Amino acid sequence: MSQIAKTKLTQTQLDAHWMAYTGNRQFKQDPRLIASAEGHYYTDIDGRRIFDGLSGLWTCGLGHSVPSINEAVAKQIKTLDYSPAFQFGHEKSFLLAEKITEFMPAPLNRIFFTGSGSESVDTALKIARAYWRKKGKGTKTKFIGRAKGYHGAGVSGFSVGGIPANRTLYGQGLESYHLPHTQVPGTEFSKGMPEKGKERAEELLNLINMHDASNIAAVIVEPMSGSGGVIVPPVGYLQRLRQICDEHDILLIFDEVITGFGRMGAKTGAEAFGVTPDIITLAKQVTNGAIPMGAVAFKQEIYDTFMETGGADYMLEVPHGYTYSAHPIACAAGLASLEAITQQNLIDRVKEMSPIWEACVHQLKAASPLVTDIRNYGFASGMSIAHIDGEPAKRPFQIAMRMWEKGYYVRYGADTIQLAPPFTTEKSEMDSLINALGDTLKEQH
Ligand SMILES: Cc1ncc(COP(=O)(O)O)c(C=O)c1O
Questions:
Q1: Ligand 1 pocket residue status of 122, Cβ below 6 Å
Q2: EC (predicted)?
Q3: How far apart are the C-alpha atoms of 129 and 143, rounded to whole Å?
Q4: Which residues partner with 298 through β-bridges?
Q5: Would you give the distance in Å from CA 34 to the centre of its chain?
Q6: Are residues 43 and 181 in the same domain?
């Protein structure tokens, strides 16, 4: 058996794991293996320190190996490792649900637990359809997503998602239609919310005209698209979506798997952008990435509708849920994570430091003509990179690999580089990341 340089893993072992969203063939020729993580840094198997420029996968805003989360997890696994998710409960899920509601806009005060963002999206879409049935409007089954949107890897998620590469291989999904994305020509290098682009919400009226509101269950958008390359909503755009949904009796779902719990310098994207949806999907930051968990926040009226029409009280109001819904260890991690965000006042910190981050990332415009756009909000930024002819995804890949060599982890996807440093990042770390990226961009000429 051959042995890959830098690791004791054999080729056979490397081949056994079909890695998620990874170029498996390239990775297995040159594995990038992480051995440990603490604070804002990973250590790879060669002992190199690597700055975490994406907070894991937008998960670890508190940094890694947070003592209070580690302790909560260790204590919980010794006390109650698992508890059946159906028909029986444990106290921590109720405490965590209440804690999550403190982060949600007021009417969204009923929390359903899932195991991931994809399951949260599935849950939101299923409940949206079921809600309309309960209301006697069972024809409302279609969904509207948005181009460049990402809503996870489930069948429902790829259906409402709008990243073509994530859809093409999988055939028929749920019946879904898509709004245009909001990257409008002329808004390149906008700082924060672009001034232009609100009019793209009007396309919802065309879709309603085509399909009729009586057939549409919900519109689902990320308030700020993350995986599509950090696409910040134009001023007034989300307000207009809300208005149109209200006028046509369509549920509005915000997928806040990335934007929930502080990344925007607000509790949610809903709070940051001043629009309250009917349903919010959550995951990632809820446990700081330490244990898989997702959640969906519903406005109370939706919950009440199911309770009022649930039949005898020993009957299920909604036949839906997961073996790992409200897993006790995830709940313990979630309580510790959200407590730390509150205690350390991290949402205010992100808000206060966002202008510093903004100034930092926009310096990259001068670094290289290959940067064709830079977008930012809160502690998130995306930049578009000029294509190599016929290979739009290649240059971001090359940049991310070079950054890894230099000791920085950044995310690349399609023609973009994405950055999302931990909430506790210091200015000196921002400068170091951006300087390294600027130099790397220059090397690409
Ligand atoms: C907005 C959004 N929704 C859903 C998901 C899916 O989450 P998961 O990968 O936990 O299933 C993601 C993951 O990146 C996401 O960014």
A1: no
A2: 2.6.1.18
A3: 9
A4: 110, 279
A5: 22
A6: no
User: Do 115 and 216 share a domain, yes or no?
Assistant: yes
152 lines ligand 1 (CB under 6 A): yes
With a pLDDT cut of 70, the percent of the chain lying above it is 99
Cα-to-centroid distance, 283 and ligand 1 (Å): 7
> Ligand 1, from 118, 222, 230: best to mutate by most atoms within 8 Å of Cβ?
118
- CA–centroid distance for 235 within its chain: 21
Q: Closest ligand 1 atom to the C-alpha of 118?
A: 11
What tokens were used for 223? Answer: 């308030």
Name the nearest CA neighbour of 325 among 122, 75, 156.
122
The residue segments making up the domain with residue 140 are 69-343
pLDDT of residue 3: 45
Q: Which atom of ligand 1 is nearest to the CA of 149?
A: 1
Task: Specify the number of domains making up the chain.
Answer: 2
CATH number at 422 reads 3.90.1150.10
Share of the chain above pLDDT 90, in %: 96
Q: What is the CA radius of gyration of the chain?
A: 22
Sheet with 411-413, edge to edge strand ranges: 371-377, 380-385, 416-419, 411-413
Picking from 343, 376, 409, the residue at the C-terminal end of a domain is 343
Structure tokens, 233: 């909503």
Using the atom order of ligand 1, give the atom closest to the CA of residue 154. 11
pLDDT at 4: 53
Write the residue with the smallest CA distance to atom 12 of ligand 1: 152
The encoded tokens of residue 358 equal 């903004």
Query: Could you tell me the distance, in angstroms and rounded to a whole number, from the CA of residue 98 to the centre of ligand 1?
Result: 23
From the CB of 151, is ligand 1 less than 6 Å away? yes
- Ligand 1 proximity of 226 Cβ (cutoff 6 Å): yes
Q: How far is the CA of 344 from the centre of ligand 1 (A)?
A: 26
- The tens digit of pLDDT for each residue in 5-54 reads 578 899 999 999 999 999 999 999 999 999 999 999 999 999 999 999 99
**How far is it, in rounded angstroms, from Cα 283 to Cα 268?**
12
Cβ atoms of 238 and 277 within 8 Å: the answer is no
Entry pTM: 0.98
